[in-house]
Each structure stands twice: as structure tokens, then as C-alpha cells.
Amino acid sequence: MPEFIPLISQQEIQDRIRWIGQEIAQDYKGLDLVVIGVLKGAFIFLADLVRQITIDHEIDLVGASSYQGTLSTGQIVFTKQPDLELKGRDVLLVEDVVDTGQTIAKIVEFMKRLNPRSIKICTLVDKSERREVQINVEYSCFCLDEGFIVGYGLDYNEKYRNLPAIFNLKL
Ligand code: IMP
Ligand code: MG
After folding, report:
1. Is 99 in the pocket of ligand 1 (CB under 6 A)?
2. Measured on CA atoms in the order 70, 71, 76, 77, is the torsion positive or negative?
3. How many domains are there within the chain?
4. Residue 166 belongs to a domain with what CATH number?
5. Which atom of ligand 1 is nearest to the CA of 130?
6. Are 141 and 13 in contact (CB under 8 A)?
7. Catalytic residue positions?
8. How far are the Cα atoms of 14, 29, 62, 68, 136 from residue 152, in angstroms, in the given order?
9. Does 97 contact ligand 1 (Cβ within 6 A)?
10. 14-58: per-residue pLDDT in tens?
11. Which ligand sits nearest to residue 98's alpha carbon?
12. In a 10 Å sphere around its CB, with 0-12 CB exposed, 13-18 middle and 19+ buried, how is residue 164 labelled?
């Protein structure tokens, strides 16, 4: 039986998102912000985050999938492209976890071809210890050194996204 060890509570998540949302709202004042969530893992984080960004902005989604089980396959597949026009606009990519950085680096590479004015990254969890590619993560809610986590949108083989808080999964 898998074991779920509580790591980050619902309250801690909401408190941190309120801060990050306010920071984003200040930084993007007067800019043309488009917040783009990376499916599927970021869907719950995105929903909570945008409600804390009090300036006008638009929301879109991009679908990218890279993981099978707990190991990166090194391949990323685009399952959904953004619908909004991004040319000349300020894109904030919202990701659930930045681990090796391979996934977000490829998404950024792809987004650049759509000629936005700027691209920044906001992640719920930054696992910087395992980073393989050099990328700047401008907004990060929580940092984690090791372990595989589930809940609050994050999955293990598509399960456990519905858990309301973040847990360390021991298989
Ligand atoms: P990267 O390409 O190694 O940076 O992997 C990032 C992607 O892997 C994220 O979008 C997550 O969906 C997934 N991922 C990485 N670590 C975890 C984890 O601990 N739990 C759930 N998903 C994870
Ligand atoms: Mg993901």
C-alpha cells in the first residue's frame, strides 16, 4: 500500500499563493499579462493563483506531458496549444513542478516562437536540486530537495490529483 506523508497543508498553500499573487499583480501593473497554466498538473494551482492576481489579465492553457510513473521519459508531448494571440504580450507560465527543468525549458522554447514580449515562470514547487537545464524560475511557492509529491493537482500515474494538500508519496 502506498503511504502518504503530509508535507504542505492546505492553509500553507493558500497563504503562499496569496503572497505570490500579490507580487505578480504588482510586477505586472501596466503590462499585458497572459497567465498560461501547464496542463494537467497546474490546474488547481492556476485556479487559486489567478484569483489572487487582482490586476486585469487573460488566462490560457497549454498541454504538455513528460512523466510516466516517477521517472522522466525525457520526451515531451504537446497535447494542447494556447488559443490566445500572444505576440507582444507578457506571458506568465504556471507549472506544478519544475524538476530537471526539461519540460518547462521546452515549453519556453515553443512559446518564444509565438513572439511574446516577455516570458516568466511561476511554479508551485521548485525541485532545484535535480535541475539539468539552466532556467530562471521567477516565482516559486515552495522549494523541495527530494522526494516524489502528489496532491493539489499533482499526480502519480494520473491518480491523487484530488488530494486537497501536498503529500510525499512512498511506494
Ligand atoms: P521536469 O521536466 O523534470 O522538470 O519535470 C517536470 C514535470 O514532471 C512536472 O510538470 C510534473 O508534472 C512532473 N513532476 C516532477 N516531479 C514531480 C513530483 O514530485 N510529483 C508529481 N509530478 C512531478
Ligand atoms: Mg506537469
Report:
1. yes
2. negative
3. 1
4. 3.40.50.2020
5. 3
6. yes
7. 99
8. 11, 28, 18, 18, 24
9. yes
10. 999 999 999 999 999 999 999 999 999 999 999 999 999 999 999
11. 1
12. exposed
